[in-house]
Amino acid sequence: MKLEVRPMLKEEIPDVLDYFLNAPKSYLRKMGVEPTLLPKREEWRDTIWRDMERADEAREFFYLAWIQGGELIGHTNINKIRYEEDAFMHLHVWPEILRRKGMGTKLVKLSLPLYFNKFKLKRLYCEPNALNEPPNKTLVKAGFEFLGTEQKIPGYINFLQQVNKYVIKKEAIRNHLKL
Ligand SMILES: CC(C)(COP(=O)(O)OP(=O)(O)OC[C@H]1O[C@@H](n2cnc3c(N)ncnc32)[C@H](O)[C@@H]1OP(=O)(O)O)[C@@H](O)C(=O)NCCC(=O)NCCS
Question: Which CATH number fits domain 3-176: 3.10.270.10, 3.40.630.30, 3.40.718.10, 3.90.226.10?
Answer without folding.
Answer: 3.40.630.30
